[in-house]
Specification:
By secondary structure, the chain is an alpha/beta fold. The protein has 3 helices and 25 strands. The chain has an 8-stranded mixed beta sheet, with helices on one face. A 6-stranded mixed beta sheet has the order 3-4-2-1-5-6, sandwiched between helices. Strands 8-11-14-17-20-23 form a 6-stranded parallel beta sheet, with no helix packed on it. The protein is globular.
């Protein structure tokens, strides 16, 4: 039987950051670099950082016992579309957690999660599908993270916070702690600008910036 093949979807900036995490995880299982590739339909690079770059269709055609995919695409709607495409094609979603990331007790994680170096998820947190947490971010106790949520570097999500599907939190965002039974809520598809300090609920689809965070004024 052919060996399994593993891939990082996306050979651009974030994919190149995620690839070493996947490689280190697989090396612990004795899986060679030859079984690990980038998948990117928009690249003609051939190789990136020592790994082959192939189109998705070619990945599907590879003779393999199983096919595994870590989706390193920052755009959340694209991430959902690719997730659904992979699952429909029988490709298994693979999460990756950096060796120095910290995950504490009672954490329930959905498939396709990426926890970059120095990320912390504390106790009793629920995380949905396709969560991306970039370097130095954290999620504190009793928080709920929806599907396809993105944390840029250095996001500070304090306890008792609910972040709904497809929200994007920019670099250095700070979210005030909610209360038991009364979480601070960031609505579906909301965008929190870099460095914003969120002190109250954010409406679905809103873009907020500043300290304290306020809706972005249209010009």
């Amino acid at each position: 039987m052919s060996k399994s093949i593993y891939a990082v979807y996306g050979a651009a900036g974030y994919g190149r950051e995620v690839m070493p995490l996947v490689r280190a995880h697989l090396a612990k299982q004795g899986i060679s670099n030859e079984q690990l590739v980038f998948v990117d339909d928009g690249s003609d690079a051939g190789t990136v950082n020592g790994h082959r770059v192939i189109p998705y269709a070619e990945f599907l055609d590879q003779p393999a016992a199983c096919k595994y995919m870590t989706i390193a695409i920052a755009h959340n709607e694209t991430r959902q579309r690719l997730t659904e495409k992979c699952l429909a094609d029988g490709v298994l979603l693979s999460s990756v957690v950096a060796e120095n990331a910290v995950v504490m007790d009672g954490v329930d994680c959905g498939a396709g999660m990426i926890l970059s170096p120095f990320v912390t998820v504390t106790s009793n947190v629920k995380i949905g599908l396709g969560f991306h947490a970039n370097i130095y971010s954290y999620v504190a106790h009793d928080s709920v993270i929806g599907d396809y949520v993105t944390f840029a570097p250095g996001v500070m999500c304090n306890g008792n916070v609910m972040i709904e599907d497809h929200a994007y939190l920019g670099t250095g965002v700070i979210i005030r702690q909610g209360e038991p039974g009364r979480p601070l809520v960031i609505g579906r598809g909301a965008v929190i600008g870099m460095g914003a300090v969120v002190t109250k609920n954010v409406a679905p689809g809103a873009t907020v910036v500043g300290n304290p965070a306020r809706p972005l004024e249209k010009r």
